[in-house]
Each structure stands twice: as structure tokens, then as C-alpha cells.
Design a protein that fits this description.
Distance between the termini: 44 Å
Mean pLDDT: 88
Number of strands: 11
Radius of gyration: 21 Å
């Protein structure tokens, strides 16, 4: 990642800001650690900041790392906004209290590694529009947002937070916003004063075929193809990443993220990134994979088993390939 800073010249009118980069270490974020390194290095080298420090947001809503409070501090959170700390519950209450306390007194934004078309599946979907900062370094609570289409029903006392793609144009717009006195295009989510219980659609009543068809209707072709190959192995993150690397020249983490967030999998006890396919889903997905390709994937997994010290091939794939 290379961040150009030519559009951040407005920041030159004020003393340099110090950046607090917060990495979400929730259960779905392991695949984004390379992006964290790229973002940190690029912001430290080319960004308009005097210094860059790191903190880690844990799944229980607590933070690890040095917490700064000075008036030149800005915060950038790298998160897919999908872990338990982004949803109602004790972890969510703890994290949103911290996030609101920051947004009331300083600039805060979220870098979302998922593609924009997937944001509606997360806790911070973002509404496109334009955002205005009245002064340099204005806190989020002072920002004004105008939606391009219908304005979201945010409720009283909600605080706007820009949601950014990890790409130069999005980051440069945020740099310009930090300079104040100007309006920039943005996608914005709102942090409510209190989290309300979610009314999520239950997947319990759907058959395996219905779950797969539901995923196929919204997934990218690459993600749907990947899901079939992942059904050949046990769906633990290191195994899924191994399969992902084996079927493409340049695997895109967002395709794997689509599968993990699809509803085809459920988290099971164990290390973060440990999943199981819902009942009969793996069998349905394996029907989408050519038998010769499935045999190659199974052979790859069996070859890797000694180094990983565990069985990697799913029961369904073993029955098909033998």
C-alpha cells in the first residue's frame, strides 16, 4: 500500500497529529494482519502524522496498549466490524463506550478491510454522502453529515464515524477532513448512545441447500468457488488459508472473509478462527467442485497433515475421494 499525501496539505496549517492505530483482534481478523503491517508502515512513512502508536482491541471489548489522551491525538481503527465487541452484549457495551468517549473529543475513523458491497453485513454498514469538519482536528461529535440519498434513522445523540476502504483516495479524504473547513465525500456510520438488541434473521430453519443458495445469490463468483474447495478440509483458519492459496495465483482475503461471514459456518470452541460447517452444508458445497479438482485438494491437505499434526480432510470429502 502506498499513500499519497499531496491532498493532505491542509494539515500543514496545524502542528502534526499523533495517530493511534487500533487493530481489532477479534475472531474474524487474523487474515488481515498483513494489511495491518502495510497500513502501519505506510502511515508511518508517508502519512501526515508525527508518530504512529498501536493498540489492540480484543473480542471482549477491552484494549491492550498505551492509551493517549492529548489534544493532538487521532484514532484509526482497523476492523471488519464483525466480532462480538461490535454487537449487543457485555463486550459491545464496553467497546462502544470507549469508542463514543473517543469520538466526542477527537477525530476517529474505521478502516474496513472488507469490500464496500459487504459492509451491510457488518455492524457498521456506512451510508454514502458528504461530511464537513468546522475546524482542524474537530472531534467526530462536531462533524456534519449529508447523505446522498435517504438519511439513516440514527436516533438522538448518535455520533458519526467515517468508514474507509484501505486505499489512498479514502485515506486522503480523511486527511483533508482532519485539516478542517472543507467538505469531503465519505461513507459514515453512527455510534448510538446505547446498543439495542438485534433482530437478526435466524438461519436455524433453513436447509443446507437454502443456505448455499442464499450465499450464492450475494457472494462474488470467487467466494462461491472458494467455498466449495474449503468444504474439502476442516474449516479452521490456517487450513482454509492453505486451501485458498492453492486455488488461485493471488488469493484475495476478502473472498475468504465472504465465506467466513456467510452463515455457512458457525464458530466452535477453540482458538480464534475455529469453525464448523452447518449441518449438511459441506456436502452441498462439494457438489460444486469437479471431482479431479477435489482429489487434488484432498491430496494437498493430506500432504500437509504431518506438519500440522492433525487430520485436515473433512469427512464428506474423504467419503467422496476415498
Amino acid at each position: 500500500m502506498t499513500i499519497r499525501t499531496n491532498t493532505a496539505s491542509a494539515l500543514n496549517r496545524a502542528p502534526a497529529y499523533r495517530l493511534q492505530l487500533v487493530f481489532d483482534a477479534g475472531p474474524t481478523m487474523s487474515m488481515w494482519r498483513p494489511l495491518l503491517r502495510e497500513l502501519r508502515q505506510s502511515l508511518a512513512r508517508s502519512g501526515p502524522f508525527q508518530s504512529v502508536t498501536e493498540a489492540v482491541l480484543k473480542a471482549d471489548g477491552t484494549l491492550r496498549g498505551r492509551q493517549g489522551e492529548d489534544d493532538r491525538l487521532v484514532t484509526l481503527v482497523l476492523s471488519d466490524c464483525s466480532g462480538p465487541q461490535w454487537h449487543p452484549g457485555p463486550a459491545g457495551e464496553r467497546w462502544y463506550k470507549t469508542l463514543r468517549s473517543w469520538a466526542r473529543v477527537r477525530p476517529v475513523a474505521v478502516v474496513q478491510p472488507l469490500p464496500e458491497r459487504m459492509w451491510q453485513r457488518t455492524a457498521l454498514p456506512g451510508t454514502p454522502g458528504s461530511i464537513y469538519a468546522p475546524a482542524a482536528g474537530a472531534a467526530n461529535s462536531a462533524l456534519s453529515f449529508t447523505a446522498y440519498d435517504s438519511a439513516p434513522d440514527t436516533g438522538a445523540d448518535s455520533i458519526p464515524v467515517p468508514v474507509l476502504e484501505p486505499a489512498s483516495p479514502w485515506l486522503e479524504n480523511w486527511f483533508t477532513l482532519l485539516g478542517g473547513g472543507t467538505e469531503v465525500p465519505a461513507a459514515v456510520a453512527f455510534i448510538p448512545p446505547a446498543l439495542l438488541a438485534e433482530g437478526t434473521a435466524s438461519l436455524a430453519g433453513l436447509t443446507a441447500e437454502e443456505l448455499v443458495l442464499r450465499f450464492r445469490a450475494t457472494a462474488s463468483p470467487e467466494a462461491f468457488r472458494l467455498a466449495g474447495y474449503l468444504a474439502a478440509g476442516v474449516p479452521h483458519l490456517p487450513v482454509m488459508q492453505l486451501v485458498h492459496r492453492s486455488i488461485g495465483m493471488a488469493p484475495c482475503p476478502s473472498h475468504l472473509a465472504e465465506v467466513i461471514l456467510s452463515g455457512l459456518l458457525r464458530a466452535v470452541p477453540g482458538r480464534p478462527g475455529t469453525y464448523a460447517f452447518r449441518a449438511d452444508v459441506a456436502s452441498v458445497l462439494l457438489r460444486t467442485v469437479p471431482r479431479s479438482s477435489l482429489a487434488r485438494t484432498v491430496a494437498l491437505l493430506r500432504q500437509a497433515e504431518p506438519s500440522m499434526r492433525r487430520a485436515l480432510v473433512s469427512a464428506e470429502a474423504s467419503q467422496l475421494v476415498g
